[in-house]
């Protein structure tokens, strides 16, 4: 038991060091660098608000359009950033994996924890800012919002680990994945809700776990929206299955990942 605790302590320190390294690499040493984490979601929200306001559209769940789009954009970016950035984790940290204490799993978890924590903090800051501006009410069901984001995080880390494992053997995998992933931006509920769709479209999109999680976030966020189309068991099952497959993929490719 003592040896296990010691091993976990060492791995924890390694992952913590990797998180710091990733943060410095991505955002730099200046505090201003971290502000860039807010730029992407805020700019996308503002752009969508301008477009939909010009078209005379209103929020399908009531309230301000900025709040509606924020609850779609941030979950999407949480998924997209994890899936894409974890894919290149091995190649970006190749030199570090020469050390026996730094495993491919550590490298992936360091990047995953940084990306997921950053996006959840960004989401909290955006919501807080909108509340200060009087555009957002208090969150209706915080437990459901947190559970939905955690489910989406587990799902996204699973996709990221699978991408990293595939890229060990196929370096051009990123290009194919990004091309296949791009349509999901329009199919994951950023611009609409399940209840606003025709039955056939709704039946099709219910098989999209990202769409399910976005609906779940909004059902927890807005007291005016209660989606009858959320399949909680499906979303959680997809997250656990993808995460398990990701772990298997990383385990099977860890030796080759050290020698790319």
Please provide a written account of the structure.
There is one protein chain. The protein has helices at residues 2-27, 31-34, 36-54, 65-85, 89-92, 104-132, 142-169, 173-181, 184-187, 199-205, 209-221, 232-257. Helix 1 (2-27) packs across helix 6, helix 6 packs antiparallel against helix 7 and helix 11 packs across helix 12. It has 12 helices and no strands.
Number of helices: 12
Biggest β-sheet, characterized?
Answer: none
Give the fraction of residues assigned to helices.
over 70%
Residue share in β-strands: under 5%
- Which class best fits the helix and strand makeup? mainly alpha
- Residue stretches low in confidence (pLDDT < 50, at least 5 long) are none
Give the rounded overall mean pLDDT. 87
Radius of gyration: 19 Å
**What is the H-and-E element order?**
HHHHHHHHHHHH
Shape: globular
Distance between the termini: 35 Å
User: What is the count of distinct domains?
Assistant: 1
Defining key terms:
globular, mainly alpha
Topology:
Blueprint: H1 2-27, H2 31-34, H3 36-54, H4 65-85, H5 89-92, H6 104-132, H7 142-169, H8 173-181, H9 184-187, H10 199-205, H11 209-221, H12 232-257
Helix pairs in contact: 1-6, 3-4, 3-6, 4-6, 4-7, 4-11, 6-7, 7-11, 7-12, 11-12
Give a short synopsis of this structure.
With about 260 residues, this protein is mostly helical. It is about 75% helix and about 0% strand. The chain is built from 12 helices and no strands.
């Amino acid at each position: 038991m003592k040896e296990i605790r010691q091993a976990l302590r060492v791995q924890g320190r390694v992952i913590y060091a990797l998180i710091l390294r990733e943060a410095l690499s991505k955002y730099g040493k200046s505090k201003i660098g971290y502000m860039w984490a807010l730029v992407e979601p805020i700019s996308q929200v503002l752009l969508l608000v301008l477009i939909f306001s010009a078209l005379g559209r209103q929020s399908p769940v009531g309230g301000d359009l900025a709040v509606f789009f924020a609850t779609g954009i941030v979950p999407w970016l949480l998924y997209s950033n994890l899936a894409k950035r974890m894919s290149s984790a091995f190649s970006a940290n190749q030199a570090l994996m020469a050390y026996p204490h730094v495993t491919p799993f550590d490298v992936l978890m360091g990047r995953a924890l940084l990306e997921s924590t950053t996006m959840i903090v960004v989401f909290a800051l955006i919501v807080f800012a909108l509340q200060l501006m009087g555009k957002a009410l208090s969150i209706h069901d915080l437990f459901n919002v947190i559970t939905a984001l955690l489910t989406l995080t587990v799902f996204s880390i699973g996709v990221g680990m699978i991408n990293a494992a595939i890229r060990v053997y196929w370096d051009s995998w990123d290009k194919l994945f990004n091309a296949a992933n791009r349509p999901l931006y329009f199919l994951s509920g950023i611009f609409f809700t399940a209840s606003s769709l025709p039955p056939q479209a709704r039946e099709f999109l219910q098989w999209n776990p990202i769409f399910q999680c976005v609906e779940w976030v909004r059902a927890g966020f807005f007291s005016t929206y209660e989606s009858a189309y959320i399949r909680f068991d499906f979303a959680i099952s997809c997250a656990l299955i993808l995460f398990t497959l990701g772990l298997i993929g990383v385990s099977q490719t860890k030796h080759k990942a050290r020698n790319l």
